[in-house]
Structure formats: C-alpha cells, structure tokens
Model the fold of this input.
Amino acid sequence: MTADRTNWRDHDWQLIRGEPVPVVLNHALDEVLVRRVGHGERSPTLRFWDRQGPEIVLGRFQSVRNEVQVENTTADGIEVNRRITGGGAMFVEPQNAVTYSIYAPADLVKGLGFADSYAFLDEWVIEGLRSLGIDAWYEPINDITSSGGKIGGAAQARRHGAVLHHVTMAYDMAPESLPKYLRIGQEKLSDKGITSANRRVGPLRLQTQMERLDIIEHLIGTFRERHGLTPGQITEDEMQEAEELVRTQFGTEEWRFLLP
Done:
C-alpha cells in the first residue's frame, strides 16, 4: 500500500437501504452520491438498490440500436436508461437482481489500475458468496463468476475525487425476455458503441435456494464484519438533487439516446 492510500477501516462506512424508487432515479442517485463523497459532503457509502419496475440499462458508451429491441421495449413499457459507467447492456427486473453501489474516496484505490481496483472492491462480496457455499471468484476485468456460471458484472467511474463501483448480480432469470428486449447474439448493426456478450449465467437462487432479501442481508453482514458499517439514509437534499438530474439529464431522450 502506498503511503497516502487509505484502508477500508479508515472510513466511516454508511449503509443505504431505501424504499423502491423509479428505475431512472437510481442512476441519478449514483451521480449525486459519488459527487457528495468526493466533495467530503457524505461519508463513504454502500447502497443496495431497489426498483419500482424493470429496465434496460446501457453502459455509458453503448449504442441503443446496437443493443436494444426498441420496438419491443416500447410496446411493453420497459424503460431504457443509460448509466454513467461503462460496461454492457442488461435487462433488469427488480425481483431477479441484486444491485449495489460503493461510493468511496479516490484514495481507497489510489495506485490501483482498473482491473486491480475491481478485484479489490469486490473482495468482500466474493467472501460473502463463498460463505454461502458458492464457488465464486473474480474474473478480470469486471465479472463475478462461479463454477455454476457468471453471477454478475461490475462497472466503475472515477469522478469528483471519488470512485463509483457498482455491481448487478443475477438472483433469478427470465431467459425468454433477453432476446425479446436485447439484441443478444445478433449481428452488430453499426460500428458505434460497445456490444454485449451472451454468457452462461448462474443465478444466486439456483446456487443457494435462499430468498433474495436473505442473500442481501448476508452480504451486508459480510461487509459490516470486514469494514464496519452504520445505518444511513439518502437525505432530502440528495433526493431533490437526484430528481432534478432526472429532469435535466437522466430522464431525457438526449441522454438515453446519446449514441442512437
């Protein structure tokens, strides 16, 4: 560790477990909370997401027409959103996913390249999954996988003097929905953006037989034991700022179709 790099325990970590919110608001909250941590206006934070509905979420540099069956998402009322991190497109249903974000000061990963920082920031969740009997490991550059198949993927952004690291893991799957809403396995339509890969997935429900909320509680306990964790909440001011960002950025067609 470099002399000016901090440890997890050097920080007072807070846990956010809020009520389900409109799906686009989660992406705006990522921007608000990483900025607040970077500016020293909130403690480093672990946030588990909850959603009011399903969504297609694109990586920051992906093309909508490369990735999304827009006619089907429109017909079925599935939101298409774009996050501020890179990575691939996902179809996410609230009951079938476990998503968390880490908002950390940049000095926690100081001196680490992206691949090493992914591994470092996900050590605790790998430990938590293994303690549930899952043969899990980190697979460069941004996957959490297991002998039963890929569990989830991470994405990251470094901005405002902080790092945002978030992960979505499959709790269960509706495999028939993927080709309906995503252009998985289809020929690339243009040379814009990054395309997603279709890989064998090993949902947590099939590997543990546990309820989704029980898995989340177990992972929270693992983080608390390793790094310390106290209850926190999204402030009224933070929520208002996120809602304004939905209006001006994350909820706009210009942002969602940034790469058409």
